[in-house]
Amino acid sequence: MDIRLENVSMVFNGVTAVNQVTTTIKEGELVSLLGPSGCGKSTMLMLLSGLYQPSSGSIYFGDKNVTKVEAEKRGIGMVFQNYALYPHLSVLKNIMFPLKMQKVPKQEALERAMDMARLVQIDHLVDRKPGQLSGGQQQRVAIARALVKKPKLLLLDEPLSNLDARLRLEMREEIRRIQQEVGITAVFVTHDQEEALSISDRVMLMKDGIIQQDSHPQEMYRNPVNEFVAKFLGNPPINVLQASFVANEWKVGEHSISFTDTLQQLHIGIRPEDFYLEEESSAFLRGRVTHIETIGRDTLLRLDCGKESVRALVDPEANLHVDDIVHLGVKQDKVLYFNGETGERVLSGKERSYHLGIETDMEKHA
Ligand SMILES: Nc1ncnc2c1ncn2[C@@H]1O[C@H](COP(=O)(O)OP(=O)(O)O)[C@@H](O)[C@H]1O
Ligand SMILES: [Mg+2]
Predict the structure, then answer these.
(1) Residue 251, domain CATH
(2) 350 partner at 20 to 30 Å CA-CA among 48, 89, 153, 312?
(3) Is the distance from the beta carbon of residue 42 to the nearest atom of ligand 1 less than 6 Å?
(4) Are residues 135 and 247 in the same domain?
(5) What is the mean pLDDT of residues 234-248?
(6) How far is it, in rounded angstroms, from Cα 206 to Cα 191?
(7) What pLDDT score does 259 carry?
């Protein structure tokens, strides 16, 4: 069963929380809703769940228009940041609770709850009270409780936000495993780009209630549609340099750029990993090292390049020090161009001919 949203909007006394969203979530897919706080992620989940009805637009589960169908009848499982477990009930009774509400016979409810406890790997803890569990274990209980009704759609609203960094990593792998084992369609809300990129089949990145881009995680990282998307993804973040138009060509510092469009402002996006240490003669940028951070297998340099400050990930073997002068080359095919006024991505002439399947003269002669 695919889930389809058609021109869905939600307005709260003048505030448009969700703005004309049209998208399809395919059966069995895990889709992340990503974006900064206040961009409308939770409102989207509430609309999918039926706890809110949209101000306009329609929601379909398969062929059925469910826009006016109430939450209890949609077959939804929900998991929240704060677990929302019943503290006075045992883990097993917590998981069984939704079945009790549905008046499922006790023996069957017990068996189904135990199946879920095994699925989320807390079957050895079912007699405990939630207060006797770690945060990660409590979240496992909440997931088991959400799945025990065999919902058609699992909605998770920042489920990992209350966990420490290591548990967050472990639980996001677990959520992916459980989602795939059950084969359930899931929508996972997070403001953490790394979480979204790592866990999902597809990411929808929102800003001010509008979906900016809806694509495969790696595609979004490599081919962002605008500067907002480019900046929201990636840690350390992408460098955005201002080009200047001098003597009929675009330049960054002294370096000419093979970009020929006429624009008022040109921004150049380069991810830190797309720089490399280079000989002075053919370098793209020259800068003075202001910070060095070695984190595991990466060395992150912060460089003062005159007008610009730049982050570059380089070979940790290069024996560099603060105040060293460094020359950077750039992987040309990874450079992103943005219209500085609108933030929209602009394809360079070369990228355009590539998309059209035309070889440029330059490439022919290379
Ligand atoms: N029940 C509500 N009443 C009024 N405004 C709301 C309500 N829920 C959300 N909003 C507003 O809608 C916008 C989106 O909120 P929300 O969906 O909670 O964002 P997110 O989950 O991405 O942080 C915000 O401006 C928020 O203040
Ligand atoms: Mg929220």
Answers:
(1) 2.40.50.140
(2) 312
(3) yes
(4) no
(5) 92
(6) 10
(7) 78
